[in-house]
Structures are given as C-alpha cells and as structure tokens.
Amino acid sequence: MKRLLNLFFILCATIPVIAAQPDHTLSLWPGKAPGITRATGPEVKLQNRPRPFYQLTQIAEPSLEIYLPKSTQANGTAILVCPGGGMQRLAYEHEGLEVAQWLNAHGIIAGVLKYRVPGPAKSGAIDAQRAMSMLREHAEQWGIDASAVGFIGFSAGGEIGTWLATHHHTRLYDRNDATDDHAFHPDFVSLIYSGGLLKFRTTELKAEFADNINADMPNVFMAHAFNDGCQNSIALAMALKQAGVPTELHLFQEGGHGFGVRSTGVPTDAWQERMIEWLDSNGFMDPKGVRSYVKQLGQDLPIKDQSLPTLTKHQQSANWEDAYRAQMRWIKHQLFPKNIGGFKGAAASATAQQSLGIDGPLVGVLPADGAINHQDNPTLDLNETGPMAIETEIGYRIAVDISYEVLTDQQAREAVSAIVPVIELPMRRSFQEGGNQAMNMVASNIGSFKYIVGEDLDPSKVDPNTWDLTLNRGTSTLHSVKGNTANGGQFHNLRKIMNQLTQNGHTLPAGTLIISGALGGVHPAEPGLYQAHFGNDQVISFEIK
Predict the structure, then answer these.
(1) What 3-state class would DSSP assign to 17?
(2) Which terminus of the chain has a lower count of CB atoms within 10 Å, N or C?
C-alpha cells in the first residue's frame, strides 16, 4: 500500500497544470497564407470527440503563442511546439500547452504553433518555417539564443518536423516580408511518435523526405512506443544513420499513441528525461552566462594582446561543471570544422594540483591543425604566434575507441598503442580579474593550440615513468624531472585524464593522441634553440624566434 501511495503522489506531482495565457500571441501571416488549406474558419473547439484533452480545428488563420519561463530559469533555448491531430485537427491542450509548461520548467522558451488544419502537411511545414523565422526575429525581445532554436512535433506534428529537417535549406514558399529574412532552419528536431512519414502501406519513407536527407541536417531525437506505428521512426532512423546525421532513437515496449508529457505508468515516461539529457549533451541547456562567456571568448581570443574574459563575470557562482560546459561549447562553436587532433591533461603533478585546489588533472582538446612534426625542424616566430609557454609532456596513442570509464591504471596502460614524446606550446594570456583562475583555464580550453609531436615508441620497450625529461635552451638547463612526477604515476594520471574526458562527453577514437600534462614546470617561450630529451629514447629540437 505504501508503495502504491508513493506512486500515486509521484503521478499527481507530474500531472501538468494547464498553462496560463500566453505571454505573446502573433499572427503568422499579414495576408493570405501561401500553400493549400481546407480550413474555412473560424477556429472550432471540438466538442464531439471523446478525448481527455481538447482539440481544435478549422484553423484558417495560423498563429504562434509564446510561453516564457521564469527569467531566473531561462537559458536562451527556444523550441517550436507542433501538436498532432492527423492534419485534421490539433491536440492543442496536451501536445501543445502542456508541452509548453514542461519546457518552461526546464528554462526553455516555448512557441506553440497553431498551424492550418484541415490541410496537407506541407502547408503545416510552411507555417512552421514562418514561425521559426518569427522566433529568431524576436530573439532579442524574448531572450532567445538565435543559434538554439529547435522544434518538437507529436504525431502529425512529427511529419511537419520531418519536412523542416529535410528541407532546412529550402524555404517552401516565396519571401513574404522582412520576417522571412530571418533563418527558418531548426537547430535540432525532436519527433515524438511521428506518423505520416511512409508511403501508403509500405515501410519506405516518402520521396519528399528520402530524397532530401543529407549529412548537414540538424541533429534528431525520436521517441516511439513499439505498440504504435513505430515503423515511421525506425525507417527514418535508418535513413539518417546511412546519411551520417547524429540521431537518438528511443523505442519503448509499450505506451501506445498520444501520451504527450503525461504520466503513463510504463517506461515511456522516460522520453522526457532522455530528451533533456540529449539537449544538454548538445549544449542547448547551457546557462545564459556560459553562452555569453563563450561568445566573448571567441571575440577576444584572436586579439593577441587582449586579456581573456573571466567565466564568473558572465556566470555568477560558476563551478567546474560550468567551466567544462564552456569548454565543450567553445569546441563545438569555434574548433569545428578544424576538428579535434587529440586531447590533453594539465596540472599533472601533485604539487600543481595542490596549488590549484583540485584532486586530478584538468583536461582540454588539441586542434588538429596545431600539430607540428618534430622532423620538420620547427621554428616558431613569437611575432606570429603571440606569447607562448613551453612544456615537456608524455603523449599516448589510444589503441581502441573509448567512450566509457576506465577502471584501473593497468587498463589504461593496456589501452595504449604507442608512447609519444610531445612539446606543448600553449598560449600565454592573462585573464581579467576575478574568479577561480583554474576554472578560467578550463573554460578557455587551457590555451592549447600548438604542439610538437615526436615519433611513436613501442610501449612494451619504454617505461615513461622512468624517463628523465630534460629541457635545454642553448647551454642552460631549464628543468630535469622524472616521468613519475605525475600524481600517482603516468598511467594513473592517464586514466584520470581519460575518465574526465569521457565524463565530459568525448569519445576517444583509436589512434588519438592524449598528452598527459606538463612535467618540470611551464616556461615562457623566449628566443633560442631548444632541445628536449625524453630519457635516452628521443630528442626533440626546435627554435623560437
């Protein structure tokens, strides 16, 4: 009985309360809407359909209703909500208003679309494209991040969402007015128990979708119950897989059709949590302060004599999670399409970690175009690069794809296919006053842009823990230190780095390079000839001008 009562209170707590009046209501079109419709108007609230929610039809004049979250919760992401109804009516209450309330509770701005019904799905997609442009047109007014405007559609709304995703570069109507000068593409698409995607009585996608699937489509999230028409989502997922479109599909054993965001008593309810996690993993749940910090960082980073912004000035009470969110956001928005060349640890020694108040190494990403082959006798000009530091580091090639936790130091050792001597040349830039400077380093990706890569060495023949790492400039020795200076030893430190990276959401591909953090200190790059000795196994020579 106690368990049943607990379940009852949980269900009661999750039943949505119908949203209040919208914060804004906008008509989509100033005159006659383009496309075909069978709606005659005026709008009708259906009374003769036995449903535990109300539905609308005869929508001849489509509109967009805006529901804003509390300002203290708002994160800047906006989602266009598209109810289902078989293109004959709109399940406006439970697939529109209740969804808006759910999104608002997560800090997301919701725009609930009243598209034209009855009518063809293409006309609904025309209305949806117009609504996407309107959201971006009012981005500043409503606090929307114009690069985080997505879509969620239910049932027939999923068909409209598939039109949006597959025609994200093609406006389905001629320009109407200045509103249409704003982008109409969705930055992500969520399709919940979609219908109408398949050719009649087949499992093949309709041509208007199949012929327009390509790799640059927005990321797609799908959820469906197996005891519903899930072949729609399965067929679309297979086509997206073939095209290389990042996609997440959740197929539940039961749940039927039309559950929306209401509690069901079966695992189908989990789709809501999974979608928020998916949005989070793609950066769409980042706080506003993190977003503004990364935007400022992108503006200041190219200016060599510019001090870098401080995370806490943008995100009050920032923590390590915020710092890594900022790093991941910077990587996605600034590093790509340059691509990732490898990964790095920082603050490898126990002394460095103690001084920064951390219990493990910091991590970051190495850009592919920052790699320099040591055989090219590299010369770097400080007038071109700006101020740099010099660090001797031990690198590792990973033998297999790793996207999960490594449990022991021995497992980390066995996952290595080569030991690689590396000289890292991170930028030397100051931060504006305020906040935890280690967090600022992480948020700005630890300034890692150039690194000299030595030859791969057989891990069965060298032990990096026993190496003497010596760095000389001319006849002066800058440092000489053992490899095991890393806190807990090299492979313990490597495991910590790998686990922090996978926890941050990275997959470590086979063959990727991980450098394990500065050993022997960080030295300012000054003009001269340098030699770095990695035991008796390799020497890296380079010049700084």
Answers:
(1) coil
(2) N
Q: Which residues of the chain have pLDDT under 70?
A: 1-19, 336-338
The two tokens of residue 319 are 């923590």
DSSP 206-250: PHHHHTT--TTSPEEEEEEETTSSTHHHHHHHHHHHHHT--EEEE
Residues near 299 by Cβ (< 8 Å), separated by ≥ 6? Answer: none
Phi/psi at 331 (5° precision): -60, -45
Q: How far apart are CA 484 and CA 519, in angstroms?
A: 9
Domains observed in the chain? 2-281 (3.40.50.1820), 332-544 (3.90.850.10)
Residue type, 209: F
Structure-token match 């030859």, residue found: 455
Collapsing DSSP to helix, strand or coil, 416 comes out as strand
Please name which of 376, 348, 378, 372 lies closest in space to residue 362, comparing C-alpha atoms: 348
Taking the C-alpha atoms of residue 275 and residue 68, their distance in angstroms, rounded to an integer, is 19
Six token digits for residue 221: 């999230």
For the stretch 451-506, pLDDT in tens is 999 999 999 999 999 999 999 999 999 999 999 999 999 999 999 999 999 999 99
CA distance 192 to 249: 10
Asked if 513 and 397 touch (Cβ cutoff 8 Å), the reply is yes
What are the CA-CA distances from residue 185 to residues 17, 104, 157, 343, 459 (Å)? Answer: 31, 22, 16, 32, 49
